[in-house]
Amino acid sequence: MQLNFPSKRSILRSFGYALATGVIFISGWGLGSGRIILSRDQLFRKSVQKNLAENLDYTSVEQVYDILRRDYDGQLDMQKLLDGLKAGLAAATGDPFTEYLNKDAAEDFDEQLSGTFSGIGAELSKDDKGNLIVISPIAGFPAEKAGLKPKDVIAEIDGVSTNGESVSDAVAKIRGTTGTSVKLRIIRGATQDLSFEIVREQITIPSVESKVLDGNIGYIRISRFGEDTVELTTKAANEFKTKNIAGVILDVRNNPGGLLNASVSVSSLWLDPGKTVLQERRDGTVIRSFKAEGVPVLKGIPTIVLINEGSASASEIVAGALHDNGAAKLYGVKSFGKGSVQQLEELLDGGVLKVTIAKWYTPAGINIHKEGIKPDTEVKYSDEDAKALKDPQLDAAKTSLTK
Length: 403
Fold this sequence. Notes:
Number of strands: 22
CATH topology of the largest domain: 2-enoyl-CoA Hydratase, Chain A, domain 1
Radius of gyration: 21 Å
Oligomer: single chain
């Protein structure tokens, strides 16, 4: 599947789009950077920048260019200079989710939303200090198998510091030919200094996995909110309905986000049409409310949503919508905390600008940015659990639904 960007397009979620990252992407998936929230509508927006001139004064920029062209001892590339200017403008916002993607990075972004890429299977973003961090390692793929965890700081890639490096540049370095390896130096919790050598794989991931557990509990795991998510989740919901399941577990752990409209449609499987899924606010003013629509196939069926520190963006939208509308309980640990919306704007050079255009709020009027969503029932998942192939969060949800 290939995404074609129209001239004006928004993400997520994370939804990322999401997007995102959301993200954005490590090993080439999910910008979320919090996977990203992709909102596909062009919003009627007025600028909130009251103190900026209509056009830039390029006098000093031209002066820098002239000095470099005249005095720099080395070879300069015009396209890289132009990319640097655009990337610098985006970075000057101080927002890790606003970023310029050149043509190659934009094409990578297409692949990431489709769920097919060559890499290690994780998503990157930046924290408030500008550190490159892991948002979510994707279950069952090299990054997770190697032991990477959400919020790990990536200090070095193949021995080179990531200080000052953009997410897209880091993604380009981590991606590569299937079968080759990448070395990462990881700082975990400000106390552990770890090294990982991870072999890249060609990864194709349907966004939804579903099955029936213990004979009467429907289980849906959504790894990202992509183009196939609504169809696959709806199919699972209809199958569960025909089997008269007693409860549903919706697992969005380590889900970095993706497409905003997918998160709204998934939420609608539990909510009556017209129920609020989320609101977008810009400069403190509500610019749009997203409502449930369609047939709520799973309405009234006891549901538990599993979340963790890798649940970001679009996955937080679904968790918040079902929780605030009384359609589900939340189990696990506090989510990542990405409460902003990004839009992709196509540029004349084939690149795109991913720009934060609004903040989103749960139906209860809460913006979870940097705060995350707290579960109703906290259940931790330790390294020892993982080594023993135990899943106490899933077990707790099953126990609750079978009481």
